Amino acid sequence: MVAHARADHPDEACGIIAGPEGTGAPERHVPMTNAARSTTFYEFDSEEWKREYDRMWDNDEEVVVAYHSHTHTEAYPSRSDAKIASELGLPGAHYVLVTTKDPETAEVRSFRIADGVITEEPIEVTGAPEAVQSYKFAHTPDSTVYDCH
Amino acid sequence: MSIEVRIPTILRPQTKGEKLVTGEGETIGELFTDLDSRYTGLRARVVTDEGALHRFVNVYINDEDVRFIGGLEAKLADGDSVTILPAVAGGM
């Protein structure tokens, strides 16, 4: 997600991580085209989104993570992010925000968005936490929880 | 004439949890009116009071986004598959 956000900077990047329905497991990363090609707005390309949705439908998958980047602001849902997601969004998805405003350090945060309410949630990095922020640790843990509180 | 309609998660409360429903109509507009007779409130989530598609909903006939083929006036044929999707979007 961070690599995608960096690659598309200064435009906003967007995409999903799909996983088997009902498991909540994010397994298949799908970078999407930002049809808005904008530094301040994103929208899934309509045709591409339909293709990916068909694939998920056939595989009994769902959107586990819906992510997008902010290129000049915090990794926090904007007013329009929350409004659009509440009106007609992906109620089961973790909305992940990546900010690329700092060229050295990317910030990644995760939220639930429903009925206009934004709730931040912790992120647990498993598998290769050293790839993320090893400098923080004297050891290499198997998993790292980035708590939001 | 029977049209299959794929319902996104966020609209399944309107279809009693069904992800796939069937409806009838010569056009997308008629289809939503027909669906609303059984799934009350579904139409209002997709169509505005002014009678246009909501800005952040995508409706497809087979693989075609109906915005490019007449919107609510887009014609349906027997056996078509309709998909409703949130237009995942946002901005700073």
From TrEMBL, chain A:
UniProt GO MF annotations: metalloexopeptidase activity; zinc ion binding
Basic and acidic residues bias (residue ranges): 1-12
Database matches in SUPFAM superfamilies: JAB1/MPN domain
Pfam family of the protein (one): Prok-JAB
Domain of life (superkingdom): Bacteria
Keywords: Hydrolase, Metal-binding, Metalloprotease, Protease, Proteasome, Zinc
Region (Disordered): 1-30
Residue ranges of coiled coil: none
One example of a Gene Ontology biological process annotation: proteolysis
Protein name: M67 family metallopeptidase
Native organism: Glycomyces artemisiae
UniProtKB/TrEMBL annotation, chain B:
Source domain of life: Bacteria
Any Pfam family: ThiS
Protein name: Molybdopterin synthase subunit MoaD
Native organism taxonomy: Bacteria, Bacillati, Actinomycetota, Actinomycetes, Glycomycetales
